[in-house]
Amino acid sequence: MTIKKSTIYISICACMLCLTGCEKDEVPSNYLDYQTIAELELPFNDAWFVVWGGDNLNDNHHASLVDQRFAIDVVQIENGSTFMGNGTQNEDYFCYGDPLYAPESGQIVEMENSVSENVPGETNTNQLFGNYVIIDHGNEEYSVLAHFMKNSINFNTGDFVTKGQLIGLTGNSGNSTEPHLHYHLQNKPSIGDGEGLPAQFRNYYANDTFISIGEPLKNQTIRTN
Ligand SMILES: [Zn+2]
């Protein structure tokens, strides 16, 4: 697949919660060899492209941030672009409005649902994660899914969700230049707190190769089936 570099580069440096810039250093982690306890599955259907993913700063600019140390950012791409038309509206983007599901069962311990979405190319640096949920899976593992469409999350704090249950819709809220999903696993129940953990997912395909357990990496196309 040929990737239109300009499109992806926009995603890279302006969104992805890389607020403090892409020049930051990689932060050390005691969790590089961590094995995820929760039996995570990808939180979406369809094929998604990994813009950022991996355990080092070259592959993943989140690696400069303690809580998002192993985060992934994913978009949908067709014919080398993340959008059709001129890309000036969120609706132009292939992933916009795509359903997002619970990667594993748990309790929603924190969330935001009322942040207005951005015009593509602009960001909201006051509410970095935009609309998001944090799901407590037990064992000090918390999934963070961010940038949902405004008012698309069908739950409240304290609700329990089961693996595969619809959580909300992909949007463009927070520090995000275009619709995408940000996902990471962390060891604390509050946004911006704690340390990031490697998130191994089960039973998915990466570039059409079946992965029984693994971490999505930069430039892979990943899908559940
Ligand atoms: Zn991100």
Task: Please explain how this structure is put together.
- A hairpin with a 5-residue loop joins strand 5 and strand 6.
- The protein is mainly beta and 225 residues long.
- It starts with a helix and ends with a strand.
- The protein is globular and about 45 Å long.
- The N terminus is likely disordered.
- 4% of the residues lie in helices and 27% in strands.
- Strands 1, 2, 4, 5, 6, 7, 9, 10, 11, 12 and 13 form an eleven-stranded antiparallel beta sheet that branches.
- It contains one helix and 13 strands.
- The chain has one domain: Glucose Permease (Domain IIA), CATH 2.70.70.10.
- The site of zinc ion has 6 residues, from loops.
